[in-house]
Amino acid sequence: MKRVITYGTYDLLHYGHIELLRRARALGDYLIVALSTDEFNAGKGKKSYFSFEDRRRMLEAIRHVDLVIPENTWEQKAEDIKLYHVDTFVIGDDWAGKFDELKEHCEVVYLERTPEISTTQIKAGLASKA
């Protein structure tokens, strides 16, 4: 079984997220999503609209996702790869080169983002209509 892992906040879930998850799952047989906790996001200066539990439930409802785990720190990635016997680490290409150190543990793939959509764009659009 080929295991794939990806990381993210997945706030205001949209079709760009679904496309990334679909493409990540297509790289293997089992997709693990490490979901940023509310506490981890706060440390990054981010606040999600939906709570960790709500975001987790939404991700668990997506057929491409097999397991959702909490992302508590930047440093946990190598440990997760070992713990879950991951073959491929996947993340959007806006992070290109930032996780190359993980290549000593598994394959690293930077997927092209869906260009016409992002959570930042949605939030900006909603703010401009307020």
Task: Briefly say what this structure is.
With 130 residues, this protein is an alpha/beta fold. 34% of the residues lie in helices and 22% in strands. It has a five-stranded parallel sheet with strand order 3-2-1-4-5.
Largest sheet: 5 strands, parallel
Integer average pLDDT? 92
Strand content: 15-25%
Helical coverage, percent range: 25-40%
* Global structural class: alpha/beta
User: Count of DSSP helices?
Assistant: 5
Order of helices and strands: EHEHHEHEEH
Gyration radius (Cα, Å) is 14 Å
- Distance N terminus to C terminus? 48 Å
Strand order of the largest sheet: 3-2-1-4-5
Number of strands: 5
Q: Can you tell me the residue ranges where pLDDT is under 50 for at least 5 consecutive residues?
A: none
Write down the overall geometry: globular
Q: How does the SSE layout of this entry go?
A:
Blueprint: E1 3-8, H1 15-25, E2 30-36, H2 38-43, H3 52-60, E3 67-71, H4 77-83, E4 88-92, E5 107-111, H5 119-129
Parallel strand pairs: 1-2, 1-4, 2-3, 4-5
Describe the structure.
This protein is α/β, with parallel strands linked by helices and 130 residues long. 34% of the residues lie in helices and 22% in strands. It contains 5 helices and 5 strands. The chain has helices spanning 15-25, 38-43, 52-60, 77-83, 119-129; strands at residues 3-8, 30-36, 67-71, 88-92, 107-111. It has a 5-stranded parallel sheet with strand order 3-2-1-4-5. The radius of gyration is 14 Å and the shape is globular. The model has no long low-confidence stretch (mean pLDDT 92).
